[in-house]
Amino acid sequence: MTFSFDHNFPLRPIELYQTAIQMMYDLAQQDYTEVIHMEDSKELGNYNVLILFVNTQVSTAPDQLRVMHCVAALYRAILVMTDGLMFCQMRSQLAIGLTDIGGLSIMALDDAAIAGTNTTNTDLINDTDVTSKSPSNRILGPSRGQIKDPENPSFVINFHFFGKPITSKEVSLAVLEGLAAAAPHPKTMGCKELEVVSPTGGCAIFVGGVASHHAFTYQWATRALKLLYQQIVVPQKNFGDLYLDLRFDGQTFGELRMLRIVDEKNSSDVVTNER
After folding, report:
1. Which residues contact 270 (CB under 8 A, 6 or more apart)?
2. Residues of 56-73 as b/e, b for ≥16 C-beta within 10 angstroms?
3. Cα angle, residue 237 at apex, residues 234 and 240 outer, rounded to 5°
4. CB 23 within 8 A of CB 74
5. Are 226 and 233 in contact (CB under 8 A)?
6. d(C-alpha 271, C-alpha 269), whole Å
7. pLDDT one-digit tens code per residue, 202-233
8. pLDDT, position 112
9. How far is residue 36's CA from residue 40's CA, in Å, rounded to a whole number?
10. Where are the alpha helices (DSSP H) in the chain?
11. Radius of gyration of the chain from Cα atoms?
């Protein structure tokens, strides 16, 4: 992949992460080898970011843009933008060998809305620079609570914040990592355990099923990751060690733990949780 950036059109990092996570979730619901016909795009209300994949091949060509290529390309693009603090309009050509199969564009929907955008701030609370490794204690929302899946009220999540705070950047990247790791698996396959660490190494997520008459599949694992981000941590501006009790029809059938990884003197220690 090659990238081109246009710093004249900056993007707000948290809006980029929100839209990328929704796009990655949508990709993870499709068959991993499915062809992307024509184009696939994602934008979220109230966020000034558009993510667009375009298939440049004719339908009869042997090499086609597929879901697997989009997952890898989106994941790589977000990491490059984060590592280089290049939160701005971006375009990339996607290829198999020497054959161009499509393109990825990440851009602002409204150029007039980007004036004054801080392109190095991924923190929702304190304008903390993305290079910060020591998040302040920013537990603002309730330490315990419950949400229902707005699309399926039978799926209920009880959440409990505890322990150490985590930067919103680390949480965002860990959720993106989890969705990308889940994408190759069929959605009807049982998810016994999915473990991921954010690419920058500051946050770990563990999600999996428990003994229950209702199967905990990758469909539910990815749904839990999406709701963790969109319905709990972002709306509450609450980022920290977190335990989720995942229930269907009143019975626990899965659980999720999100933990800060503490790096001291080049050794990593994952803080554990007891229910």
Report:
1. 204, 259, 261, 262
2. bbeeeeeebbbbbbbbeb
3. 95
4. yes
5. no
6. 6
7. 999 999 999 999 999 999 999 999 999 999 99
8. 55
9. 7
10. 13-28, 67-83, 168-182, 218-227, 234-236
11. 19
Lookup result for tokens 């949400």: 147
Q: Residue 250: its pLDDT value, please?
A: 95
* CA–CA gap between residue 87 and residue 117 (Å, rounded): 10
Q: What is the DSSP string of 114-150?
A: GTT--TTB--SSS--BTT--S------S-SEEEEEET
**β pairing state of 50-55 and 2-10:** unpaired
pTM over 0.85: yes
* Segment 24-48, tens digit of pLDDT: 999 999 999 999 987 788 877 678 8
Closest by alpha carbon to 248, among 224, 232, 230? 224
Q: In Å, what is the CA distance from 159 to each residue of 82, 168, 233?
A: 28, 17, 10
Interacting residues of 28 by C-beta distance below 8 A, sequence separation 6+: 71, 179, 180, 182, 183, 187, 218, 222
> How far is C-alpha 128 from the chain's CA centre?
20
- Would you state the pLDDT for residue 212? 93
Please list the ranges in the chain whose pLDDT falls under 70. 45, 111-142, 263-275
Residue identified by tokens 């069929």 is 186
Given this model, what pLDDT does residue 140 score? 55
Q: Which residues contact 43 (CB under 8 A, 6 or more apart)?
A: 19, 49, 50, 51, 109
Q: Give me 180's structure tokens.
A: 């990308």
Closest CA to 21 of 116, 122, 150, 100: 122
* pLDDT (0 to 100) of residue 143: 87
